[in-house]
Specification:
Blueprint: E1 5-9, E2 24-27, H1 29-33, E3 39-41, E4 50-51, E5 56-59, E6 65-68, E7 74-76, E8 80-85, H2 92-110, H3 121-126, H4 134-178, E9 192-196, E10 208-212, E11 229-232, E12 248-251, E13 263-265, E14 273-275, E15 279-284, H5 291-299, H6 301-304, H7 311-317
Parallel strand pairs: 2-7, 10-14
Antiparallel strand pairs: 1-8, 2-3, 4-7, 5-6, 5-8, 9-15, 10-11, 12-13, 12-15
Amino acid sequence: MAQVCTLINGRAYSKPELLESGKYPVLRVGNFFTNNHWYYSDLELEPEKYCESGDLLYAWSASFGPRIWTGAKCIFHYHIWKVIPNQEVIDKRFLFMFLEWDAQLIKSEHGTGTTMIHVSKGSMEQRKIRFPAISEQRRIVAILDKAFESIAIARANAEKNLQNARELFESHLDSIFTKSLSGQKKPLGDLVVFRNGVNFTGTSRGETVRIVGVKDFQRNFWAPLEDLDVVTVGGVLPDSDLIKEGDLLFVRSNGNPELIGRCVLVGPVKRRTTYSGFTIRARSIVDGISSRYLCHFMKSAAVRREPVRNSVCEAGLKT
């Protein structure tokens, strides 16, 4: 890799150097992905420590991979490289696409379930890359760009169809739960027992266990149990802090109010798995109550739009 490009490290910052406002935004790894909070700097640095729109960058710590920067001039953090292609032998867009493919290969080399991956500058410079003549590289890039454009259109159409189907389903669900159903009516607290999730810190020393967090509430119904984060908690967790099939999990605390009260149903659990302190578990204590029914009920618009912010569930959320 060192023969086709140069990797330039960003700048490491001490806490006092990161300002709430200033001349230059400081691009950190989190800003590549999900973190919209920016720090700033008034420091004047050597030109190579800045990135401009169109520069090829690579986040090499934790969440990692290449990006072509499209924002304004900024300073890039130490955990990001600026990648300068050797224009005589390699096209920047071709190199970007190779690095995207190679990032997935690096993840597979670290093994499934690994959450913190670091790639050293030396190891990246030693990685092998095969490439044709620049004219052929550009032809390949043009083909891939056209393919990705078609995929993006197909994905947008699929997401629109999915949203339409979800709205139709939720409308039907709402009509069911807003009608007067025969049978008993009881507070949710009479049917399930609530238990807050597990808290831990980076210094916790004890059992290593899989954990369901707020980020795992992306699916509409089932809790994803395949690719969970693995954390270390204090001591050995009692069985009462583990989830089992049929449990309901709710988002208990989050900066986004729309997420509060969102729920998922737990399917078969094959390994010891817990849930984070930002969530809460509801476990049925009454025979004959379907967890699937409760999950659908808690997702219905009739419940979600109640003035008390999901009153049936609110008592449990504050437990």
